[in-house]
Specification:
With 602 residues, this protein is mainly β. It contains five helices and 43 strands.
């Protein structure tokens, strides 16, 4: 079989004119398929390495093969293969056909493959049904011409996948087929397989299925601030916004966007799904979520603080429920976002206003925002497995009393773009307002650009706890503190209050690890160097985004038996003894679901 696989992998491929933006061929598909039209013989669909195959978003450099057999008169089998490089959203491919006679259909079998003159059109209708249409319509090597249909059994979990293939609904082939799906999501059919959702307030439950493309235009607001309705987004769905459009999840409403590693949910711009256009940061505004957790920023501290979002100034946020839930987002990509509504008033890739700790954010990838990647405006939202690539302002930003936790986070700046890896405020008008911001981070990695500013700017009275993390490559110092209340809240070198903690971290930046100034109350370098496991004299070599094998971050200059305060004490954090997002060069949790990271690691 290996010979025929290799031959198929190098065959020329051509996409047909027919494309869809829904079902995506990925590694969650089952391996064994059957067709009654071919005498009970079946097909095997495999993802294997294909040198030279183009990079694809979800599967990396792999090729996807279908094989089926027939039996000659003398009893020897015929093997017929076809191959294509899967492209997310493309469901129809024009493919070559390769055939062989004899041998065994097992790995390593000696099979001599030859090209057929016939091409075929392979259409993926869902992860249950694939058809192969052979042209010209003439028998070839005993296989009947015309359409051959293959089906798969999805009653159990797919081997090698964390879940059953999500694409159980077929791609609609007509506008009429699409209408019902669109109506369930608050939209109407723009064409077969494409739903258009206009701006407006939606107070009913909506479902955005994965067998159509969702195009929204304007301000799509889920809930009216009092309703508890939910936007459900299916695993593998693609949601694209027209220019300046924004998706808003209001207080009391929810978003349930549960992708998986093989089939992430993609929020992107309309330009990203149009083959005639080139997507860019700022194509679409982004995602805004408003919650009911506590914030600071109100002059009257005797009442529960409620503000309106900074950019549009329309959506209330804040309350008194730090455990408030706005839903769940897992295995989600957010691409090509950012919008400046007024000077210093922007919509980020993901803007979280007063979002509570009951909300789940896990495996979130944000790619190319004209402003910040993710910004927390108060609240208590927590995030695991966060990736921010190519933010043109700050990658992670917070203020207004955010008191959340982040573990396993990777920030990658692009040269010529980006300001700070972290920009941290409490409140820009009153540095001592309560609740005071305090971000807590474990296993953070920031790879800065030489053209960028600090790795982390800590100012305006905010607090920071950071464990088991590294910051490298930023054009200025790794850590800079501003403003007297920031220093006061920390304590003094040798006598910290416990509200600022820096333990077991590595700093390697262009202008050194820390920015000290004679005008500051004391040197931040003296304060941070008093914590255990601070390493500043080591150059950390990173291949793409993964530290090189043998780096000290894996060996662990951290003691497993840490003293109190040297490891996080919250139930949210995993306790470990490695520095940065990855436990080893092989511990790459960014695959295959994320987007925009260097190909060297993919």
């Amino acid at each position: 079989m290996r010979n025929i696989l290799a031959k198929a992998a190098t065959a020329a491929l051509a996409l047909s004119a027919s494309t869809s933006f829904a079902t995506t061929v990925d590694t969650s598909f089952p391996e064994v398929w059957f067709s009654n039209q071919v005498g009970g013989n079946g097909a095997q669909l495999s993802f294997i390495d294909a040198p030279g195959a183009p990079e694809t978003i979800r599967t990396g450099k792999t090729a996807f093969f279908a094989f089926y057999t027939n039996t000659e008169v003398d009893g020897s089998p015929i093997w017929v293969a076809t191959s294509f490089n899967p492209i997310p959203g493309v469901t129809t491919y024009t493919v070559p056909l390769i055939t062989s006679s004899g041998g065994s259909f097992v790995p390593g079998a000696a099979v001599n493959a030859t090209n057929l003159d016939n091409d075929a059109v392979l259409t993926v209708h869902s992860c249950e049904r694939i058809t192969l249409d052979v042209t010209p319509e003439a028998d070839f090597d005993g296989i009947a011409a015309g359409s051959i249909e293959f089906t798969a059994d999805l009653t159990g979990a797919v081997e090698g996948s964390s879940s059953i293939c999500p694409y159980v609904n077929e791609v609609p082939e007509t506008t009429a087929d699409t209408d019902t799906i669109c109506a369930a999501g608050g939209g109407s059919a723009l064409s077969a397989g494409v739903c258009s959702v206009p701006g407006g307030i939606y107070t009913q439950d909506l479902t955005w299925a994965n067998n159509v493309l969702w195009l929204y235009d304007g301000q799509v607001e889920i809930g009216d601030g009092t309703t508890t309705n939910t936007l459900n987004v299916e695993a593998g769905a693609t949601v694209a916004g027209q220019p300046n459009s924004v998706l808003v999840i209001k207080q009391n409403a929810n978003i349930i966007a549960e992708g998986n590693a093989e089939s992430p949910i993609i929020f992107t711009s309309a330009a990203d799904v149009d083959p005639a256009l080139t997507p860019a940061s700022g194509d679409v505004a982004g995602i805004v979520i408003t919650g009911l957790a506590t914030i600071n920023g109100c002059t009257d501290t005797s009442v529960t603080c409620v503000l309106t979002d900074e950019a549009l100034n329309q959506f209330p946020y804040g309350g008194d429920n730090d455990l408030d839930s706005s839903g769940r987002m897992r295995y989600v990509q957010v691409r090509y976002t950012g919008r400046e509504v007024l000077p210093d008033r922007e919509i980020q890739g993901l803007s979280l206003f007063g979002v509570g700790a009951g909300t789940v954010f896990d495996y979130i990838s944000i790619f190319r925002s004209t402003d910040d990647g993710i910004e927390f405006f108060g609240g208590t939202a927590n995030v695991r497995h966060l990736i921010v690539v190519g933010a043109e302002d700050d990658s992670i930003d917070w203020g207004f009393g955010w008191r959340g936790k982040v573990q396993y986070a990777l920030v990658l700046q692009e040269e010529g773009f980006g300001d700070r890896g972290i920009e941290a405020d409490s409140n820009e008008d009153n540095f001592d307002l309560e609740p005071r911001s305090q971000g807590q981070f474990a296993n953070l990695g920031i790879i800065g650009a030489s053209t960028a500013d600090n790795g982390a700017k800590i100012r305006r009275g905010t607090l920071l706890k950071m464990w088991n993390s590294w910051i490298i490559g930023t054009g200025d110092e790794c850590i800079d503190w501003d403003d007297a209340p920031t220093y006061t809240a920390a304590g003094t070198p040798g006598a910290p209050t416990g509200d600022h903690v820096y333990a077991n971290n590595l700093f390697d930046c262009v202008n050194g690890p820390f920015e000290d100034s004679s005008s500051d109350p004391y040197n931040v370098s003296d304060f941070i160097s008093g914590f255990p496991g601070i390493e500043t004299g080591t150059t950390l070599t990173v291949d793409g985004y993964i530290p090189a094998p043998g780096s000290s971050v894996y060996e662990g200059f951290i003691g497993i038996d840490a003293e109190p305060g040297e490891q996080p004490d919250s139930d949210f954090f995993d306790l470990n003894n490695y520095v940065g997002p990855f436990a080893s060069p092989n511990d790459d949790w960014t695959k295959p679901w994320s987007f925009g990271l260097p190909a060297i690691n993919r």
